[in-house]
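Minutes, project check-in
Item: structure for the 602-residue chain
Input as provided by the requester:
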Amino acid sequence: MAISGMEMADLVREVCYDGGDGPLLLGGAVAGYRAFADVLGAGTRFPYMIMGVGDPTQWEAGTGELDEAGRLVRTPAASSAGGAAVDFAPLEKKVGLALHAGWAAAVEAHGHGMAAIDGLAAALDGKQGASANLTALAGQASAADQMSYWTGAGAAGLTALSAQGRSLIGAGDAAAARAAIGLGALATQSPGAVAISGGTIGGIVDLAVADGGTGASSASVARSNLGLAIGSDVQAYDADLEAIAALATTSFGRALLTRADAAGVRSYIGAGTSSTSGTVTSVAMSGGTTGLSVSGGPVTGSGTLTLGGTLALASGGTGATSASGARGALGLGDMAVQAASAVAISGGAVAGLTSLQVSHPSSTAFSYIDSLAGQYALLRWRSGTAGRWDMGKTNGAEGGSNAGSDFALRRFSDAGSVLGTALTIRRDTGEFQVGGVLAPASDNSLALGGAALRWSIVYAGSGTISTSDAREKQEMEAVDPALIEAWGDVRWVRYRFRAAVAEKGVAARWHVGLVAQQVRDAIDARMGDGAAQRWGLLCHDAWDAQAEECDDEGVVMRPARAAGERWGLRYEECLALEAAWQRRAIAALADRVAALEASDAG
């Protein structure tokens, strides 16, 4: 049987990014291999193998064929789905032509057995001597006989051992073997009865109390383990004893220390019974032990201080005998009696504020500006008395279905009249309506949307304008011929979006375009790994995970988002490269036609 191109399975391999359990659209030949369509026509049956790269747990082997659209129609024989068709994820896969059974049989029939390999028998014979000698060595009757064999005729057939190994084999008994490897007498003792005479034991920490230690590595823990209750309070007791000793050196102190009880101490220092019901923080003694006057600080206690009249405002009182009279004397108005959580201001203005804070210690804080439906409820900023900006609820009528009372940001003229609405947000749809040009804060530095937050559709009256000024470009050269060659391997395909199919089923529409990973692989195959990402037509973005954020009422303010990555294309650059490839192809055809016409004319 001849070995044809079809049987050379290692030369046919394609990448695939399609998914599902039906026909798979192949994405082009892997670098160094051929595509199935290059060697097999539509309808030809062939064995295949699919290996998951993005998800290595998915695999499938079977028999298949290519349909008219170049898709692999699969009949699985074995798979990671128990032999059924695998529902492949839309991740990278490699699809290869499996080894042809006829070719394998033909190779086996050639008779290339083990005996036909030159030199193999001689090489194996050279290895048998060692095995025979080891068998003979094991069969010696005693260690002495083994040693005799080892040092005699058997030595030539064995691989040389080290001096240490030879001395161990030659040991006559266990003691000699221990001596050969350097083991002392301690090695023969049992773990439960180790006897040590002389020397030093190192590495022992926290010897237990039962073994004559303290079971601790610090003084405080050792005192606790030994039941010493004084512990670290010894210094405090010493300080108290020193204070008592100092007091005993004075006649007043010695007399005070001889009193039998608290009443005796109070009597000696001239304190009355009132001292037992309160605290005097600053005391000055006058007239020996009979007089007591407060010379500063408050007098505290649980009793009642009774005066012969009202204490004047100048003496720290209010000069009044009622709560309302006291508030009047202190100049307090009606707001002083309102609760802090329900202050009511009717009329007038709050003036002189430099800041206003609205907060709540345990939940969301709200400030309310109320108005009737169909009327403005606005917060206005002014310069002097002339308006500059205001924002809030508009005066649109509320007609049901969440319509009306939209949000607006309005701008004012120097004279304080409304110039227009800069921004409107509809309450029913959340739609933004901008009253001016929407422009980035800096030129050519900010994106509209993001890798994980894309606009689904962009409606515009005309196409976008991209920078093409020669003064902003450099190194303007002809397109790299290798890139044009690689572009010839790129395949235009039709496809449907997975999200649209999940939502609309068979009604989901078809699209025509390119697959970013196939573009990448086609360019890398021609120009080297990583070459495609050095061209602006291919993009790769990644983003971190984002937790869901809700307000205190449970309303989702920002939805959760898993981490991910995505490949993309700048289609205007892809189309430009497609035009360059077609130009070159047309030029080649024109040259060929011209050459044929010239030949006919001659």
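Outcome recorded: The first helix runs from residue 36 to 39.
No further action items on this chain.
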